[in-house]
Design brief:
This protein is an alpha+beta fold. The chain folds into two domains: 154 residues, Jelly Rolls (Sandwich); 104 residues, Orthogonal Bundle (Arc Repressor Mutant, subunit A), CATH 1.10.10. The protein is 47% helix and 19% strand. It contains eleven helices and eleven strands. The strands form three sheets. A five-stranded antiparallel β-sheet has the order 1-8-3-6-10, with helices on one face. α2 runs antiparallel to α3 and α6 packs across α7. The longest helix has 19 residues. It starts with 18 loop residues before the first strand and ends with a helix.
Length: 290
């Protein structure tokens, strides 16, 4: 991470081959990675377990066989819902598909992808063509037989065709894309403030001052970026921290609620049940049994 901000940068293992694929299996039930965004296109292919995934304004539960797409400059967050969660991460820099010869394919399809002008739907379910294409890509990348680079590149071309034909959600103008990226970067300080001070009282005016806009305008922009009101987003962060403490710490429910910024234990319990479909007490009992 860059400092503790929401922007995330990770180098490709090979600068001359801008694709990285790896298996992620260290996120257990209640575990998560912090809300963040990055500039490359990223796919998750789930092979075992369950998870809750937030991408932009969308939230959904994923299970084996599902494919999730995280678009460039899209806030996302994942939380494990089982201890056996396994999924592949496929990171793609769209410029990897470019050639030295500028042609119609590059101008019409690849350049808009690299400029983040095309956004795909976040969840793909029950699509055997997409699954087969991803499985083939992973297999070639893992085995690394002679010519695997060509095979991986070919499979990703095929995958992009499938996505363009069936899963485009939005096509932006260049100005709109630049405005979106600028807004997201300017709100880094807001997300950092919430992440570092969730246990304290955070006022709307404080957050609005960080981006030098009025509270009313702030509410509209924040909802556009996250799909949530400021209160719902802050409470979501607090609930994630509370779930972690319930699983890891020998604290009672009241102590955890107060430590995570909730003044009322009843309010905390009500929100926790609504979010996790289980009471904090039952959640703690279940995690302590495992």
């Amino acid at each position: 991470m860059k400092d503790s901000q929401t922007y995330y940068y990770r180098k490709m293992p090979n600068a001359d081959f801008c694709v990285e694929i790896f298996l992620k299996n260290d996120i257990k039930r209640g575990g998560n990675f912090k809300t963040h965004w990055h500039e490359h296109l990223q796919l998750y292919y789930f092979i075992r377990g369950r998870a809750s995934l937030e991408c932009g304004q969308n939230r959904f539960e994923v299970s084996p066989g599902d494919v999730a797409i995280v678009n460039s400059n899209e806030l996302h967050y994942l939380e494990g819902l089982s201890d056996d969660l396994n999924f592949y991460v496929i990171r793609i820099d769209p410029t990897f598909l470019f050639s030295n010869q500028v042609d119609l394919v590059q101008t019409k399809y690849l350049a808009p992808l690299s400029q983040n002008l095309i956004s795909f739907q976040n969840l793909i379910r029950n699509d055997s063509q997409v699954q087969d294409c991803i499985t083939k890509t992973i297999e070639e990348y893992d085995k690394k037989q002679i010519g695997f680079e060509l095979a991986v590149k070919s499979s990703i071309y095929q995958l992009i065709v499938l996505l363009l034909r069936g899963y485009v959600s939005q096509v932006l103008t260049k100005d709109a894309c630049e405005a979106k990226a600028h807004t997201l970067k300017s709100f880094n300080a807001v997300f950092e403030m919430i992440e570092n001070h969730y246990h304290e009282k955070i006022s709307l005016s404080e957050l609005a001052c960080l981006v030098n806009i009025s509270p009313c305008h702030f509410c509209r922009v924040f909802k556009q970026i996250t799909g949530k009101t400021t209160t719902d987003y802050i409470n979501g962060i607090r609930l994630k921290k509370a779930a972690f403490l319930l699983e890891q710490e020998d604290l009672n429910i009241t102590e955890i609620a107060l430590q995570c910024g909730f003044d009322s234990v009843n309010y905390f319990s009500r929100l926790f049940r609504r979010h996790y479909h289980i009471s904090p007490t039952k959640f703690k009992e279940m995690t302590n049994q495992n």
